[in-house]
Design a protein that fits this description.
10 helices, Rossmann fold, globular, alpha/beta, 7-stranded mixed β-sheet, TIM Barrel
Length: 378
């Protein structure tokens, strides 16, 4: 069986080496099966070189063409290639690659058990990415905020005890996640944020965990917050907006002094407006080209491909509209399985019919009453 490995870096080359020099021997000795023949790496990006050793470097269209001709039969995702996985699933879907032919490895930073080294992606208890709100409201309220945070008219936090039960329920089906981002709204508004951080690290000890913040409140956070970040190995992702421009040098010094790893976005002088009130029939196209379609969200006992099934209610209430609020999967469904959960996250929802390609608008903070043109691209 000919296979390809996703990406071209050291991790992918290490996976190829394991398959060729160890896994194939195990297959033959244990099951008397033919070896897997690693023939190519598949890259999202243009590469200066066309081969690595004796293996071709293919783009996704080249891989799909060989797959349709049955010259390559499966693609293997190294589990550590977190962000790459999110985009790759959509590309493969668009190009007609069956979910039955997408596999994923176990983690490489522990002793490898060949019994579970390669699994079907759809049934592996793994997600490359998850995010959740610890506050729906915000202290900045940007125009065209994709989460509608500026339309939340009062402080809105999840219930910690219920969220704990929901997160533990998710863990029954997904016991490993590549990257988890804790956000809002503005997460630093939640007085129980430390508890959410510790819960996340307890359930997912190997995940990369980030707090996504506009940084306004960072200088006012207690020392216990920074200690929790250090203890739980959590980093800060700062969304950099114009009101913080003069304050950012001091905020960066603070995080460096506290020994907190952080990533600073480019200064956002524009925002993307992506919503419309005019329904279209291009939901599959929109979904497969949408970065947010891989921003899997956990909210109030449900999980969805993106946040819109959970935040559209704020837009509908504020403007008296009825945009679809569907698309979430109830984690407490009696017959739920990992495969069913993951299949749900790979399908467009009705709300996708009201999303459009992004249009850049000048960044500003909204004022109430906010005109509907602050939010829709019509």
């Amino acid at each position: 069986m000919n296979i390809a490995i996703l990406a071209t870096g050291q991790v992918s080359q290490f996976v190829a080496n394991i398959i060729e020099n160890q896994y194939n021997n195990w297959l033959e000795q244990t099951f008397n099966k033919l070896p897997l023949n690693v023939v190519a790496y598949v890259s999202l990006f243009d590469n200066a070189q066309s081969t690595i050793g004796d293996k071709a470097i293919l783009n996704f269209r080249q891989f799909a063409a060989l797959y349709r001709k049955k010259l390559i039969h499966k693609i293997i995702f190294p589990r550590e290639v977190y962000l790459y996985l999110r985009q790759s699933l959509s590309y493969l879907q668009m190009l007609g690659v069956s979910a039955d032919d997408v596999c994923i490895t176990s983690r490489l930073d522990k002793e490898i058990s060949f019994k579970n080294f390669i699994e079907l992606y759809r049934s592996a208890k793994y997600l490359p990415y998850l995010e959740f709100h610890v506050a729906d409201h915000c202290n900045l309220n940007c125009k065209a905020c994709s989460h509608y945070s500026g339309l939340v008219n009062e402080p809105t936090f999840p219930n910690l005890q219920k969220f704990t039960r929901d997160f533990e329920r998710l863990h029954e089906f997904i016991n490993d996640i590549g990257t988890i981002r804790i956000l809002g709204g503005e997460p630093l508004l939640n007085p129980e944020l430390n508890e959410y951080i510790r819960l996340t690290r307890r359930l997912y000890p190997q995940a990369l965990i980030h707090i996504v913040t506009n940084a306004i409140l960072l200088p006012k956070m207690p020392e216990s917050f920074f200690e929790t970040l250090r203890t739980c190995n959590v980093s800060i992702d700062i969304s950099f907006y114009p009101p913080l421009e003069s304050k950012m040098p001091a905020i960066k010094r603070l995080l460096e002094e506290k020994n907190i790893p952080f990533k600073l976005s480019a200064l956002n002088r524009t925002f993307n407006m992506t919503y419309t009130l005019k329904a279209h029939n291009r939901e599959q196209e929109i979904f497969l080209n949408c970065e947010a379609a891989h921003c899997h969200n956990l909210y109030n006992g449900k999980i969805a491909a993106c946040f819109l099934p959970f935040t559209t209610k704020y837009f509908n209430t504020y403007y008296g509209k009825n945009l679809p609020e569907d698309g979430a999967l109830d984690l407490y469904e009696p017959d739920l399985t990992t495969a069913k959960l993951k299949a749900h996250l790979l399908k467009p929802i009705e709300r996708c019919r009201y999303c459009t390609p992004p249009v850049a608008v000048e960044w500003k903070s909204i004022k109430h009453p906010s005109p509907i043109t602050d939010w829709v691209n019509d």
